[in-house]
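Supplementary Note 2. Why include the ligand at all?

Several targets in our set were suspected to adopt different conformations when bound, so apo predictions alone were not considered sufficient. For every target with a known small-molecule partner we therefore ran a joint prediction. The input for pyridoxal-5'-phosphate is given below.
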Amino acid sequence: MHFSRFPRLHWAHLPTALEPMDRLSETLGGPRIWIKRDDCTGMSTGGNKTRKLEFLMAEAKAEGADMVMTQGATQSNHARQTAAFAARLGVKCHILLEDRTGSNDPNYNYNGNVFLDFLHGASAEKRPGGQDMNAEMEAVAEQFRAKGLKVYTIPGGGSNPTGALGYANAAMELVQQANAMDLKIDRLVHATGSAGTQAGLVVGLKAINANIPLLGIGVRAPKEKQEENVFKLAEATAEKLGCPSVVSREDIEANTDYVGDGYGIPTPACLEAIELFAQLEGLLLDPVYSGKGAAGLIDLVKSGAFSGDENIVFLHTGGAAALFGYTDAFSYDKPVEQTAE
Ligand SMILES: *Cc1c(COP(=O)(O)O)cnc(C)c1O
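The joint prediction is reproduced in C-alpha cell form.
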C-alpha cells in the first residue's frame, strides 16, 4: 500500500507504542493482552481521529479551504481533534453537536471535549438528537458558502474513504511492529462507532495478508447495521487504495452486546473497565468508546473466548478528554482533611 500517493499532513506521533498489559492480563487470567497506544497520537490529547485527520485535513488544504466543518455528539472526540487540526492549519472550524443523550449535566454539556472545542477557537451549534446530521451540516455549509467562504466538510467521525486511509496505514504499522518484536497477534480488538477505524484496519490487514482477525466492539448501532456500515466503507476505501474486493463480508465482525442503554450512556461494566485500566495499568479510557470496547474485551476474556497462549491486541482509540464530561458517573470521596499532627 502506497500512502504517499495521497495528500497527508504528517502531524501524528507515529508509530504509536505497542505494549503488554501485564497486570491486567494477570488479573483476568486469560490470554496475554497488549495495548496499541493510539490514545497517544498527538493533537489535543490524541486519539484515533488524528490518523484520519492527517489525510482529511491535507485534502482540505489542497482544496484551499478557509473553513472546515464537522459534526458529532456533544462529547465528540472527533470534533475536538478537528478543531485542533484547523487551529494548526490556520483555518476556521465550525461544529454541529448532536444531543444524543438528553443529559442536563453541565459537565457533559460544557466541559471535557466541548470546552476544548472552544479552547481551540472553534464555533459550535447544538442540534436535537435523531437528525441526519451530515445533511444538516451540508445545509449549514451552504449558508457559509453563500457568504463567500470555501468550506470543507468532514462527515461524523471522519469516516469516509479518505479518513479510513489512516487506519489502513495503522494496520501496516502494527504488523511491522509485531514482526520486529516476534509477536504473533491472534486478534485485534477495538471500539467501533462511525466505522472508519474498523474499515481502514480491515482493508489494511487484508491487503498485506496479515491473517489477523479483527473484532469491533459496537457503541451505538445494532450488529447487522454496524457490520454493513463497516463493510460499505471498507469496500470504498479498498477502491480508493486500488485493491477493490480485497475485503469480503465475512471479514467484518462487530459485537454489539456492550452498548447498554445507548450511545454515550456508560454501563456499569464500562465504568468498571475504566477503573481496571486506570488502577492496574495507569491508563485512561473513556466512557463512550474505549471503556465499552474494554468492557467487551474483558467479558470475552472472562467467558473463555480466547485461549491462554494467545496474544490479543486492544487498540486504544483515545477519548479520555470526555472523562471530564462524565465525572458524575463516578462516585469518589473528596480528599480527607489533613490527619497528621
Ligand atoms: C471515534 C472514536 C472511536 C470509534 O472510531 P470510528 O472510526 O468512529 O468507528 C473509538 N474510540 C474513540 C475514543 C473515538 O473517539
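The longest strand covers residues 92-99. The two ends are 66 Å apart (CA to CA). Comparable summaries for the other entries are listed in the accompanying table.
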